[in-house]
């Protein structure tokens, strides 16, 4: 009986040992994950591009009095259209008129004294030094009278050109200082429209420009209140230094004041630029292709040989609510993953979805 129990125990031990000795099953091969992709086109040629822009006045001026005094009259209001030479404001002239009277009396006396001195010095009745002193006094009195008359003229503030009163900074009867701002004017003949140009498009814009008046139109302005109507622009200038925050350059164009709609400085517009045919534009890809987990703007590019994807750092611009324009970091023919990028890892096995599969997801 004992021998039988021993044999049974030995058999069980042998069976367990044999089971432990079996090899673990090999790991299952990694299942490739399907991804939605977009193959970048070779078509990089120029096209129309739209840029948000701001309307400004071509002629802008801040007017002030050259002398201090009490404001006696304000003759225009904000928004008024004024002609060149039109009187806008007037200081109280009383003190200045009194100064002219005093200067005129001093001048008359100095002139009379100097006239007598001319006769006296010819006859040797006064010294040369006395004559020179009277001459100096006369010239100083003449200059003082001229300055007093000029100061009286400075009490009138006139429009330097036809313009619209954009801002009034002071009320009537206030005491004003010399060179204190009184009005801001903006011209009515031409408007300026400014917008920011990305660095990579700067050279293309420079290739397109010509100085007025022979410039060929390659840019237009659109306004929300004008529907699809476009207004031609004439190139003015490009800033030489980039904005430190955006790394863009300010472009400025001229535009004639439209007759049908009211366009005022400060309004928003969209500038449409027709770039040269050889201009590099970039690629429009879905916003969902952008991966910023690393703190940089990256796009995953699929490699058909390794069946994996690699993140590439890119430069881009917003180009709609759901798309971006990649201007740097990608190459023609790249296969870009455009969905589910937040789950991707380096080395992960992938396969591109077929066209009909991608269409079902759209």
From the coordinates shown, what is the CATH architecture of the largest domain? Beta Barrel
- Which homologous superfamily in CATH is the superfamily of the largest domain? RNA polymerase II/Efflux pump adaptor protein, barrel-sandwich hybrid domain
User: How many DSSP H or I helices?
Assistant: 5
User: How many independent structural domains?
Assistant: 3
Major sheet summary line: 7 strands, antiparallel
Q: Mean pLDDT, as a whole number?
A: 83
SS class: alpha+beta
What spatial form do the alpha-carbon principal axes imply? elongated
Measured as a percent range, the helix fraction is: 25-40%
Are there runs of 5+ residues with pLDDT below 50, and where? 207-216
- Strand content bin: 25-35%
CATH fold field value of the largest domain: OB fold (Dihydrolipoamide Acetyltransferase, E2P)
- What's the N-to-C terminus distance? 77 Å
Number of strands: 25
Reading the helices and strands in chain order gives: HEEEEEEEHHEEEEEHEEEEEEEEEEEEEH
Q: Specify the CATH class of the largest domain.
A: Mainly Beta
Quaternary class = single chain
Radius of gyration: 41 Å
Pfam families: BSH_RND, HH_MFP_RND, RND-MFP_C
GO molecular function: efflux transmembrane transporter activity
InterPro entries: MdtA-like_BSH, MdtA-like_C, MdtA-like_HH, RND_pump_MFP
Protein name: Multidrug resistance protein MexA
């Amino acid at each position: 009986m004992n021998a039988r129990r021993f044999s049974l125990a030995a058999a069980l031990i042998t069976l367990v040992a044999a089971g432990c000795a079996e090899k673990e099953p090999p790991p299952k091969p990694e299942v490739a994950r399907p991804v939605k992709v977009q193959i970048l086109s070779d078509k990089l040629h120029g096209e129309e591009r739209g840029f948000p822009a701001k309307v400004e006045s071509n002629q802008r001026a801040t007017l002030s009095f050259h002398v201090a005094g009490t404001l006696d009259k304000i003759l225009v209001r904000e928004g008024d259209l004024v002609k060149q030479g039109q009187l806008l404001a007037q200081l109280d002239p009383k003190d200045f008129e009194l100064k002219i009277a005093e200067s005129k009396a001093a001048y008359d006396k100095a002139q009379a004294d100097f006239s007598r001195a001319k006769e006296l010095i010819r006859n040797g009745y006064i010294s040369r030094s006395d004559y020179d002193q009277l001459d100096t006094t006369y010239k100083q009195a003449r200059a003082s009278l001229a300055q007093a008359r000029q100061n009286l003229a400075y009490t009138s503030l006139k429009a330097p050109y036809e313009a619209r009163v954009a801002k009034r900074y002071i009320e009537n009867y206030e005491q004003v200082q010399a060179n204190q701002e009184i009005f801001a004017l903006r011209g009515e003949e031409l408007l300026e429209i400014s917008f920011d140009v990305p660095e990579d498009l700067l050279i293309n814009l420079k290739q397109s420009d010509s100085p007025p008046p022979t410039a060929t139109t390659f840019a237009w302005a659109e306004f929300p209140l004008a529907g699809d109507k476009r207004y031609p622009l004439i190139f003015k200038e490009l800033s030489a230094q980039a904005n430190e925050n955006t790394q863009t350059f300010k472009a400025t164009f001229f535009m004639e004041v439209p007759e049908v709609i009211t366009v005022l400085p400060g309004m928003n517009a969209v500038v449409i630029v027709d770039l040269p045919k050889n201009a590099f534009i970039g690629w429009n890809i879905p916003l969902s292709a952008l991966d910023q987990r690393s703190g940089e703007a990256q796009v995953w590019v699929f490699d058909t040989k390794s069946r994996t994807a690699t993140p590439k750092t890119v430069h881009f611009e917003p180009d709609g609510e759901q798309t971006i324009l990649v201007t740097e970091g990608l190459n023609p023919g790249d296969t870009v993953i455009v969905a589910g990028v937040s789950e991707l890892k380096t080395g992960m096995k992938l396969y591109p979805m077929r066209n009909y599969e991608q269409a079902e997801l759209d």
